[in-house]
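Complex 498.
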Amino acid sequence: MSKTDSLIKQKASKKSYDAIIIGAGPNGLAAAIVLAKAGLDVLIVEACNTVGGGCRSAELTLPGYLHDVCSSVYPLGYGSPFFRTLPLNDFGLRWINPDVSYAHPFDDNKAILVYRSIEKTATQFKEDSDAYYKLMQSLFIDWDMLCEILLNPLHWASIQKLIRHPLSLANFASKSLMSAEFLSKTIFQHSLGPGVFAGVSAHSGLPLTSIASASIGLVLNIAAHAVGWPMPEGGAQKLSNSLGEYFMHLNGEIVTKCNINSLEELPVSRLILCDLMPQQVSRLAGHLLPTAYKKQLENYKYGPGSFKMDWALNGPIPWNNPDCLKAPTVHLGGSFEEIAQSEQAVNSKSHSSKPYVLLAQHSLFDSTRAPANKHTAWAYCHVPNGSNVDMTEAIENQIERFAHGFKERIIARSQISPSGLASYNANYIGGDINGGSLRLGQLLMRPVPRLNPYSTPNETIYLCSAATPPGSGVHGMSGYYAALSALAGWHAKKSIAF
Ligand SMILES: Cc1cc2nc3c(=O)[nH]c(=O)nc-3n(C[C@H](O)[C@H](O)[C@H](O)COP(=O)(O)OP(=O)(O)OC[C@H]3O[C@@H](n4cnc5c(N)ncnc54)[C@H](O)[C@@H]3O)c2cc1C
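Predicted structure with flavin-adenine dinucleotide bound:
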């Protein structure tokens, strides 16, 4: 090793590898596992001091209170066709999967609980029971088949699979291309259904009037019934650690605390997979990618930012409707109109004084998260990309509105703004937690229109982050497909381009 070697060359145990993954998020870890299982010699390089990317836990408020720093609830992680093939239980992962996926309280103290059972959920919608039942039942076939439709990237291999399920595809596609507003107002006659559907669709950060804004809500609601919205016992980090430890069991190597600024810093490698956003890939690649392609990467669009909060509480959240205590996740915002206004404001670069808030209350279901008789809560709201506005009061007011006395239970709080998220993880550009805007064109063709979205014009460089299909969320499927595509290239040509 020479003194002029880059940090990664100093830290890595070997001078050359078959494959290097930059970024140990869920997709980077998934890609690394696929390649290591195929017998390749694989190194993961991670900027932070632990693996996990957007799937980590830490004591953010007080000692003894364990919070999820970013993601927290995992319908897609639990239901991930790839994660489900891995022996993660042997590496410390235990899922907690309550019967209720999420709750949606209203101002009159009514609350809809979305159970695993479609029937039990539907009965709460009163006059709209049949409408809810028919909608969900028509989309609920079996999860594996749905995953072929929902989680597969749109390249030729998946198009072949889709052709085998034309009716399911047509039913899902026709509904998911609608705006959340159009779908819910067409299906439901009364206000509960649209309110609930607004809450689940607003995860996308899209205006609820925009084309295909129903798609994310439908996927998450199908998952609520098909697999549940579970959490790992002991926090998000347990999922990442199990992936990292399984990778090392496959003889993989991980180097942490090593930020990569140029691909030329890396040890020699026949494949490089980037669990990074397109604009970072463009910057790091330098002359290794053609200018025209780099321009396309730089034109990639990012969505709203998020303002994230965690609390240490001296008791459970005192919900006005105590049924909300049965749900690990609670959507706060009330009616369809109010949630739609909040998301419209964010997309018009302003801040709602009554933001739509996603809240999770893990310690009710997982005693490892807080000291005895104490509790934690996790929440965030959308804000314009790059916003510096402190949303603490607005978020706490929204919780207080549906849980009188919440503020009195706060022992400590922590906040992280969009710029804080971006410094924590360079992939959260302007605080965008979805790996780029989920607007229709970019949802289907990310990061750039290309037959194989994971490949680049340089046959040694691949993208494997949430900026590639199927996109946002902790499911590892972007990493899985990117690695399969890199392996295909590897088998076709085992030589290095630089
Ligand atoms: C507040 C918040 C709440 C969320 N809630 C949920 C949820 O409940 N459920 C869910 O499924 N998803 C949720 N998400 C989204 C989810 O976390 C992401 O979609 C997911 O983590 C994307 O995985 P990834 O592997 O593509 O990238 P990331 O998880 O972002 O990982 C990228 C990794 O690359 C590293 N890196 C970046 N640049 C460099 C560099 N130059 N050199 C070396 N390393 C680098 C980063 O440190 C990071 O570890 C949430 C995200 C946030 C922020």
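The radius of gyration is 22 Å.
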